[in-house]
Structure formats: structure tokens, C-alpha cells
């Protein structure tokens, strides 16, 4: 019984950054913009959060400020993507990829001085997990039961029609991408402040990419993202738990999350899940085009 | 500011815009260097002097140009047909694994060893890429995510092999396989690390694929698939068959790059991060710079070769972390795709 409870709490903890980041990506994609830069935005957020926590005060810092800084850094990075893809109408997939490289690069470069420096206080995980789940529920409500949600969804489904209704398509998209960046930044802060209060280069370890895949897996639904992220969290837990215990090489466990993403994407494809994608996902919008 | 469409952009326009984008990228990367505490002028001077004006540096540039050339020509073809293969890194590794398998365990007459390694490497890379292509054509799975995930998996495959069944007899501390015999080593230009047969192979592929794309019916079908999938379907072109073929070529070329690295330089299977140093990602920029022309990769691959070799110099001479190359790559790619709008549109100031 204890074992199961322990597994569940660890799964929640592993799942929290995944949930936060994928909620951001869901909002962005519901407005029609794919952002594959989640990994990079997370890395930048993790660094900004850690730097502020370390810099403010005598090593412990101000948690609230640090989280804000992480979200700000994520948003700033997302704005690059927004400008390039929304205003300049560049390829969203390639831009997101570039943003991931840039984010990992900048974070690794500027974070070098923090490598190996400890933060002394470890904030509790639970409030962050509760916040993530609360946000998921709130987003599910906003998306499906409010005018704002309707506006956001219509921008992702049919921007021309939304435009005709007087919705500011580009504005909504900028906002959605920015929100996605803030959430990715928050997910990064969870890693560098709460989960393991320290900074190491590459600490995001592919979680951003898994969050992107999770969005497809849960069919762009914030509500289902809760269960999806716990599911992936459980896998992470099992990976650590079973490592070294069985005769199976550690590399098999280490590559499990990535193999699983492929499997999950294939399963979503098999179920026709890809058809749930917002109609205009990935397509730039230009006024006056038919 | 308003953008006015330019229906038939000239080649010169594309050239100037591309050069402008590269210039802007250098400025932005310079800002990041300043934030790190290194003067960008100092950094660029170190990079340029150490690569182009130093014989040792120049051979480093060439050595890094070879994998970029092989992967880049494949990727131009893939991007031209809207197949966003981001997994060249993993395909290179699998190519290296397959070739190492031949070198280490397949008894062959010496003159056959290298050809078999090249063949096996191409197969390894192609298989890794075909997984993603097959999932895309069958189930509509986004190839960017699958190819990327397969990169991570490939890394663990290599680590598993050199840490487990293929672990070298003299491997202590670092992990690697046994050294290959002389028959499994690609000849180099004496006194350098430049394995010229692989270089020639890259040059040949660049021209061959350009010819394929511009002068053959198959190439025409590929262009139609890339530019207008709807029309392709209407014309009876099998999009999924073209996609699988493209994956075979790109993945195979990336696999060849892997063969070059292990048979031309390291002569053993080594840790993935040392084996590749990001060639797969840098080649994305190589291909994007070439704007869909395989032959142009002959120019863009050396350019990025300079940046990779220069990044190495920054690590050593200015003590910067290896992430400098990621900063360059990210900024450069962002500027390149952002600039595309200025090729197809003219800027008109005012209202």
C-alpha cells in the first residue's frame, strides 16, 4: 500500500513540469500556433528562476520573484517565436526547433557560472502540483465555457471567420504563444527551484519534447492533460525504480520515455487522434487571403 | 511598414537577403557573447584566425565539412518535399553502429571491408529514418517529434553497445569499442584528418541529387509533392512512396556521414556526443541556407564547418562552454527563416 502511494506521489511530482508545459502548449496550439521551442523555453526559465533565487538575498532568495523571472524569461523567448511565425509568417516547426537550440544554448552559456552552486532551501512540491492541476481545470473551463475560450478556439480553427467577427487574430495568437512561454518557464522553474534546487546544463533532459507529444496524446484537452502527465510521471518513476533492480541494461530504461513518446504518437495516430488538431494549426494567417 | 508581394523574386534578391540574415545572426550571437562576458569582436577574431588562416584550423574545417555536406544534401531534398527530418544526428549514429558492426565482426576480404561498411552505414541511417517516414505516411505521426526522439534512442543504443557487448578490451574510464583493423580505415590526405573518399562521395551526391531534382521525372514529382501536395495527389503521384524514398536517401546519406566519422577519424565506435558534436542539427542550417538546392550545399557546408570548428576554438582559447555552437545554430536558423518573407515580399515604408 505504501509502495503504491509512494509511486503515485512521485508520479505527480515528475508529472508536474510536464503538465505545466503542456498546458501552455495546448493554449498556444488551440490558437493555431505550434511551438516546438518548449524545451528551450523551459531551459531559459529554469536558469532565470535559479539565477534570481540565488541572486536575491543570501543564497535562498525570494521564491515568488524567482518564479516570476522564470515565467518572464519563458515569455520573452516565446515572443521571438511569435514575431517570427505570426508577424513574419515563417515556418512554425522550424522556428520552434531553432528556439529550442537557442534556449538550450543561451541557458547553457549564461548558466555556466551557476553550475554546481546549491540553493539551500527546497520549497515543497505540493503547492506547485496543486497549482498545475487547478490551472488545468480552470483552462478547461475557460476554453469551453467562456467567450474568451471561444475566441481562442475560433482563431485556431478558422482565423478568417474569427477575423470577420472582429476578433484580433494576431493579438490572440501573440497572447496564446506568450502564455505558452510563461508556462514553459514555470515548468523550468519547477525543475531548478523545487524538483532539484540546482542548475545543470541540459537539466530539462527532453521533458519539453515530451510535453509537446503529450499535447497530441491528450487531444488538445487541458482536462485530459492531467491524467496524461500523471501517466508519464508514473513511467519516469518506474524508470528510476526498476533501474539496476532487474537484469535489464540501464540504457533500456533511459531510452524508455523517448520510445514511449513514439509509441504514444503512433497510438494517437491509430485512433485518428491527429484529426482532433485545430484546423489551422501550423498555418500562418494573412489578412485578405482566401 | 507594409509588405508588398514580389511574385518572381530574383536569385540576387535571395542571395542578398540570405547574406543579410547571416549578418544579423552574427550581431545577435555577439550580444549573447557580451552577456556571457566575452567581447564578440574578440570571439569572431579568434574563430576566423584559427580556422581560415591556420593550416591546422583549415583541416579541421574540412573535416567538419564532410559530415555536414553528406547530411546537408540529403536534408535539402527532404525539406524540399516538406519532410522535416530533424533526426540526422540519430541516423548518423546508427550508420556508425552498422559500419562498426561490419568492421568489428564481419570477416571479409580486405578490399571489401570499406565498401561493405559504407553500404551497412547507409542502411543503418536509412532504417532509422524510415521508421519516422513510415509512421508519418501510415498514421500521420509528426516526423519532427519522432525523428527527434529517435536521436535520443540512438544515443542510448551506442552507449549500450560500447558499454556492454562491444566494449573494447582496453577501455578504461572512457568507453569505446576495440579499434578497427587497417582494412576498415578510410585513407586520409597525408598529415590531416581529411578522409578524402568520403569528401568525394559528398561532392558527388550534391551534384547527383541536384541533377535528380532538376532534370528527372522523379525529381519533378518530388518538387510537386513539396510545393503542392494537392496537385500531386490529383496527378496520381504517390506522396507516401515519394516520402519513403526521400527518407531512404536522407537517412542513408546521414548514415554515410557516420561511417566517415568512425572509419575516417576515430577508428572505433566511441561515445555519441564525441562522435557527432551536433552535425545533425547544424546540417539543418546547411540545408536551409542552400534554399533547397543540393549543389549549393557545397558552399553552405564549409560555412557551417567554419562555425563548428570555430566553436571548438572558443571552447579552448576563450574557455567557453560547448553551448556556443547551439547559440549560433539557433540564432542563425531563426534569422534565416525570418528572412524568407523578405525574399518573397518587398518592404514599403510608410502607408
TrEMBL record, chain A:
Cited PANTHER family: ABC TRANSPORTER PERMEASE PROTEIN, SUGAR ABC TRANSPORTER INTEGRAL MEMBRANE PROTEIN-RELATED
UniProt keyword terms in alphabetical order: Cell membrane, Membrane, Transmembrane, Transmembrane helix
Membrane topology (UniProt): Multi-pass membrane protein
InterPro entries documented for this protein: ABC_transp_permease
Name of the protein in its database record: Inner-membrane translocator
Compartments reported by the entry: Cell membrane
GO MF term list: transmembrane transporter activity
Lineage top rank: taxon: Bacteria
Entry's transmembrane regions: 12-28, 40-57, 63-86, 93-110, 130-150, 171-195, 207-238, 250-270
Signal peptide residues on this chain, from the entry's feature table: none
GO cellular component, one term: plasma membrane
First-listed, main subcellular location of the protein, grouped into a coarse class: membrane
Amino acid at each position: 500500500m505504501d509502495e503504491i502511494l509512494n509511486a503515485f506521489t512521485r508520479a505527480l511530482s515528475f508529472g508536474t513540469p510536464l503538465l505545466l508545459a503542456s498546458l501552455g502548449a495546448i493554449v498556444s496550439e488551440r490558437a493555431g500556433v505550434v511551438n516546438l521551442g518548449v524545451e528551450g523555453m523551459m531551459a531559459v526559465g529554469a536558469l532565470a528562476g535559479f539565477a534570481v533565487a540565488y541572486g536575491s538575498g543570501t543564497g535562498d532568495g525570494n521564491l515568488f520573484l524567482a518564479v516570476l523571472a522564470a515565467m518572464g524569461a519563458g515569455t520573452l523567448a516565446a515572443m521571438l517565436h511569435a514575431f517570427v511565425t505570426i508577424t513574419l509568417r515563417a515556418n512554425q516547426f522550424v522556428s520552434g526547433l531553432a528556439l529550442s537550440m537557442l534556449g538550450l544554448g543561451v541557458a547553457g552559456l549564461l548558466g555556466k557560472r551557476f553550475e554546481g552552486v546549491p540553493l539551500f532551501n527546497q520549497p515543497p512540491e505540493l503547492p506547485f502540483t496543486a497549482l498545475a492541476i487547478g490551472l488545468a481545470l480552470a483552462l478547461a473551463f475557460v476554453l469551453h465555457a467562456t467567450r474568451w475560450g471561444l475566441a481562442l478556439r475560433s482563431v485556431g480553427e478558422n482565423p478568417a471567420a474569427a477575423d470577420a467577427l472582429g476578433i484580433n487574430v494576431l493579438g490572440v495568437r501573440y497572447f496564446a504563444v506568450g502564455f505558452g512561454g510563461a508556462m514553459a518557464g514555470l515548468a523550468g522553474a519547477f525543475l531548478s527551484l523545487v524538483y532539484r534546487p540546482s542548475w545543470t546544463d541540459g537539466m530539462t533532459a527532453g521533458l519539453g519534447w515530451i510535453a509537446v507529444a503529450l499535447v497530441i496524446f491528450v487531444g488538445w484537452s487541458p482536462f485530459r492533460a492531467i491524467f496524461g502527465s500523471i501517466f508519464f510521471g508514473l513511467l519516469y518513476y518506474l524508470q528510476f525504480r526498476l533501474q539496476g533492480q532487474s537484469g535489464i541494461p540501464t540504457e533500456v530504461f533511459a531510452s524508455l520515455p523517448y520510445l514511449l513518446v513514439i509509441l504514444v504518437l503512433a497510438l494517437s495516430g491509430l485512433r485518428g487522434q491527429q484529426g482532433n488538431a485545430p484546423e489551422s494549426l501550423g498555418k500562418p494567417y494573412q489578412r485578405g487571403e482566401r | 511598414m507594409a509588405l508588398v508581394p514580389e511574385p518572381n523574386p530574383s536569385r540576387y534578391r535571395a542571395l542578398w537577403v540570405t547574406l543579410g540574415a547571416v549578418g544579423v545572426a552574427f550581431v545577435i550571437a555577439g550580444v549573447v557573447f557580451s552577456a556571457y562576458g566575452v567581447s564578440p569582436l574578440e570571439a569572431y577574431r579568434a574563430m576566423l584566425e584559427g580556422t581560415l588562416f591556420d593550416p591546422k584550423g583549415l583541416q579541421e574545417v574540412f573535416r567538419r565539412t564532410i559530415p555536414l555536406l553528406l547530411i546537408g544534401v540529403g536534408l535539402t531534398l527532404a525539406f524540399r518535399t516538406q519532410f522535416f527530418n530533424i533526426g540526422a544526428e540519430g541516423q548518423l549514429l546508427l550508420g556508425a553502429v552498422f559500419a562498426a558492426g561490419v568492421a568489428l565482426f564481419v570477416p571479409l576480404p580486405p578490399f571489401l571491408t570499406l565498401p561493405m561498411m559504407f553500404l551497412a552505414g547507409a542502411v543503418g541511417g536509412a532504417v532509422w529514418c524510415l521508421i519516422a517516414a513510415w509512421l508519418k505516411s501510415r498514421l500521420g505521426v509528426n516526423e519532427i517529434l519522432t525523428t527527434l526522439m529517435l536521436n535520443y534512442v540512438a544515443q542510448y543504443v551506442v552507449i549500450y553497445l560500447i558499454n556492454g557487448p562491444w566494449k573494447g578490451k582496453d577501455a578504461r574510464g572512457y568507453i569505446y569499442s576495440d579499434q578497427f583493423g587497417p582494412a576498415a580505415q578510410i585513407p586520409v590526405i597525408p598529415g590531416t584528418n581529411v578522409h578524402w573518399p568520403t569528401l568525394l562521395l559528398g561532392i558527388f551526391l550534391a551534384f547527383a541529387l541536384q541533377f535528380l531534382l532538376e532534370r528527372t521525372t522523379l525529381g519533378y514529382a518530388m518538387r510537386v509533392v513539396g510545393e503542392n501536395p494537392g496537385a500531386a495527389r490529383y496527378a496520381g503521384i504517390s506522396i507516401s512512396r515519394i516520402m519513403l524514398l526521400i527518407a531512404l536517401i536522407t537517412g542513408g546519406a546521414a548514415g554515410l556521414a557516420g561511417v566517415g566519422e568512425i572509419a575516417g577519424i576515430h577508428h572505433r565506435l566511441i561515445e555519441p556526443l564525441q562522435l557527432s558534436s551536433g552535425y545533425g542539427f547544424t546540417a539543418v542550417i546547411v540545408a536551409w541556407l542552400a534554399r533547397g538546392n543540393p549543389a549549393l550545399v557545397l558552399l553552405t557546408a564549409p560555412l557551417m564547418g567554419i562555425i563548428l570548428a570555430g566553436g571548438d576554438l572558443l571552447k579552448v582559447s576563450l574557455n567557453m562552454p560547448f553551448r556556443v555552437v547551439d547559440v549560433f545554430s539557433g540564432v542563425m536558423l531563426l534569422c534565416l527563416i525570418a528572412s524568407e518573407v523578405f525574399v518573397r515580399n518587398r518592404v514599403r515604408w510608410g502607408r
